Amino acid sequence: MEIIFMYVSGIIVFIIAIVSIIRGITNRIKSPTEDLKEQISILEKRVDDLENDKKGVT
Known about the structure:
Elements: H1 2-57
């Protein structure tokens, strides 16, 4: 009886480990993409501000 409980608990731990590994991998893949999008939007805003400043000076 105890052996059955050990196998069941082992399977549950294994499934939890697999799920956490998959979530970690997707988070590592997704995070840099979001950071790049944020940096691109900041740079686009800065370029627009600089272009508006240049138009105002000339």
